[in-house]
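INPUT
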Amino acid sequence: MYTQLLPVLLVLSVAVVFAAVFLGLSYWLGPRRPDPLKETTYECGIPPRGTVQIRFFVRFFLVALMFLLFDLEAVLLYPWVLLYGDFLSAGQAAFALGEISVFLAVVVVGLVYVWKKGGLEWQ
Amino acid sequence: MLETLQVNIPSWSDLGYWRPELTLLSTFLVALIGDLIVRGRRPWVPFTLALAGMLLALGFAVADLGEPAHTVMGSLIIVDGIASFFRILFLVAGLATVLFSWTSEEIMGVKREAKGEYYALLTLLTGGMCVMAEARDILMLFLSMELVGLTSYVLAGYMRTSLRSTEAAVKYVIFAAVSSGIMLYGLSLFYGLTGETTFVGIREALFANPPHPYALLVVVVLVLVGMGYKIAAVPFHHWAPDVYEGAPTPVTAIFSVGPKAAGFALMIRFFYTTLVAGPEAAGTSNLLRLVDWPLLIALLSAVTMTYGNLVALRQTNVKRMLAYSSIAHVGYILMGFLLLTSDGLQAILFYLLVYMLMNLGAFLFVVAINNHLRSEELTDYAGLGFRAPWLATMMFVFLISLTGLPPTAGFIGKFFLFKAVLAQEWYWLAILAGLNSVISLFYYMRVTKAMFFTEPAESDGAAAPLAIKPLEYVVLAALCIPTIGLGIWWGPVRDFADQAIARFNVGI
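OUTPUT
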């Protein structure tokens, strides 16, 4: 029924068999002489210290959130620019411009809000 | 060279059909700025703004009731009968919640912060729910769900210093993230199967080349997961009891009716448009048979109502008990989806409206009692029938309506649902629902027994009458009178639902 998918299955099975054979071979034939230095985590020559689970200052979270917000705002402007030509030829350029101004105004209100609430200060 | 999408060019004139939503969204911004100007010291400013905005939006929604269906924002949004129906439902629920929040100690207590933002967010939540009922494109579907979701997480965690409230918000976010992810996967597969993003386009593509039954089944189930989470159907309900218990009670009140009804609105529009061409054409679609839709929904409904009712039996916290009871009600409402017929749709719409009145009433009663007793435990409800007789009597009405006994609106709502199920000859489901109603009688009446037949504890002041605020009486009476009234004279509301169905647009 799905004969056109047969090549995909073939590729998948070749990949699995190939990987299994070579992993098995290196496990079976390869010499193993561990020492303490070899067993440490590799970290560009510097010996690793402490654990990876450290606590972040909660302010980073707010900064990341605001970065995401204002970054996405810029990203959303690109599709608008691409579609503006269509609006122009349909005689609706004023509407498109008005719409994006509303969007930007909302974002500006957000900025004012964050500023006034002290979200931009690093206490 | 980038190829741009073919868009249906929107224009200013579209926005005229979107006045309620525009009013709500601008009220949100104005209330936020207003709160900044008064530096959060005068919560009545955002409260008044939110109230005025909602009243204005309700006025617009009522004025636009008779309008023919129109699309807004290109083809993303449609304002038709179903949308107008749900707009009114959400705005009434929003108004009642805003008014009641003003009396609530959990929101307005001395220690609380950001009271202004609370009212602004409630307005945004209401606006988001209206958009959910109007989405006719999978992009808008997801965007509106996230708008409602993001606002809900903040509202659930409103009591920042309360551990319970913070826990509720975190649980809500995590469950929402997982189920949104699953639903997005389903929606992307829908796009993959059909190459369309509008609901109508999806249906046309599915009807033109029916996909493999298993492919369609997987996709439908994945989408149902996301929507089932929103309406809190078993087995996607795990967030509901904890969130409902932890969130401030007025917020729980709107959660239990607003986003839930919005989830149903989304389900109605999505499945009635993609799987069948509207409620009138339900019998002619073979997609329903392809995915075994009736069995899927019957099982979901049966599990949801039975689980909700059985677990509610064991609860000692009234708020948590009502949370499980709202899960059970989702099970009843799901019965209307069995065959996507217009009978079922009528029953769903009528029941949602009735459920909004009675469930909101029951939760607001919990708010009123919590203001005085600082407790939601059933044992502390002892003797409330003597300490606050009018309030307790109204709670009694809400409880018998939730059980589904005459002469209340809940009885008529259940009657329509049972009629729709029996007309499709799904007898076992109807019998199970009947048994469930009997089970629910026990835990609803347990509250009544505590209020009227148990003496209050013999400690200081535990038997004194409560000083109920006038606003609490007014809002509860405004919900209680139609709860009884609709049990006796339901014609106008049934006609209202019928008009919504008649103007339900699955084309354009």
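end of record. Chain A touches chain B at residues 82-83, 85-87, 90, 92, 94-95, 98-99, 106, 109, 112-113, 116-117 (CB under 8 Å).
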